[in-house]
Design brief:
Chain lengths: 214, 214
Amino acid sequence: MRISSLAERSGVPLATVKYYLREGLLPPGRATSATQAQYGEGHLHRLALIRALTDVVGLSVARTRTVLDLIDSSPDDLFTTLGQAVAALPPYVEEHEEGHPRARAAIEALGWVYDPHYPAVAQLERALAAAESVGMPIEEQRLLGYGEHVRAIAQIDIAGVPRDDPGAAVEHAVLGTAIVEPVLAALRRLAHQDVSSVELGHRQGPPSGDDAGR
Amino acid sequence: MRISSLAERSGVPLATVKYYLREGLLPPGRATSATQAQYGEGHLHRLALIRALTDVVGLSVARTRTVLDLIDSSPDDLFTTLGQAVAALPPYVEEHEEGHPRARAAIEALGWVYDPHYPAVAQLERALAAAESVGMPIEEQRLLGYGEHVRAIAQIDIAGVPRDDPGAAVEHAVLGTAIVEPVLAALRRLAHQDVSSVELGHRQGPPSGDDAGR
DNA sequence: TTGATCAGATAGTGGTGGTATCCAATAATG
DNA sequence: CATTATTGGATACCACCACTATCTGATCAA
């Protein structure tokens, strides 16, 4: 298909498709002449991926490119690649490295195996420090509770990773981290509603305007 | 304290403090003369809050302002206020939306009480649609698993909300949603490492530089 | 042949998150 | 009391980002 069909079928404006080509997010089509190129289903999928990463996950074009590059590269080491992908995902954190005291204490309290250089350690440190600075420190008790359930969620994630094909594993792992995060965030917000309606006995039935009461 | 001390103690550049004042994120100090104003500890706390919301949560200045306004307003209805706050948090979603078929099916499968107009429903719809469009649909089985553990997390959250003071409850709920999310995201990424090191037998012990072989 | 479409290059746009400069009024200092 | 420094506030400016629009000459479809 030609670039105009690609734009039309993907719902992305033509000028933007060209922009993604320029920026290297979208690989060039197979040129059939000096002013013509063919694009395939792969390009369509790639555009969906780009839009999901930019619009839903909220990545910048530059970070989207690094994530896509990681997906494209055949990995020598899945864990290294995954670490790099995680570092490209928000919340962004500088490399400055200190002790990460809060994060290390937390992970050790949880008893998890971890690599202190993994970017998620710095992300955790930053998030815990932010919570503290705002007057809402996360106490160990609460953290242990979170950890237990988050680990269960991680087990579900891992169970879905294809074991045999390493290329597919990287893509799955990266997307699983990036794309599932908003799902979990939305679910948590909905769960707040459900839990409080049940636990606080606070009426919060279906549609407002409706007679939704208990 | 005067504005220069405020800037110094908070670590925020003076020009930026003035910018936040202009944008209405930071309330003006108590003017003692035409060219002098006093700022207090409250302003210091507010600056920390602004930086956490912009830098860690990644909100724009405009959205930070709406969140802060919600925290400041004494709420007629906690749930309405919380809904508005959630709408100001990423992932952002347009209001046009109709059936939310994926989201409604999901929440009904989970058996949760929900209000279909709650913004998190649209957020969930969008996140599920994005996952699908990228070739990684979240099947019901997996969703039920996520839901179970996310609900447990939500129970921990709700348990920490102050019951008596409604003003504090709004602030706690908003911050709890916004600030805790990065904590959970980082924990999940770390849990991936732990789970895979245990389940896949993939050794991922502490420092790299170590003999990190098989 | 002729008009439409194409790929690719270049330039322009609107919004955002600051930063820098200027000013007159006031505070601090000798 | 005179001089110098600093302040709050207003305005102007800036760099970056994600697009978007325009142009050009080649090539395709009729």
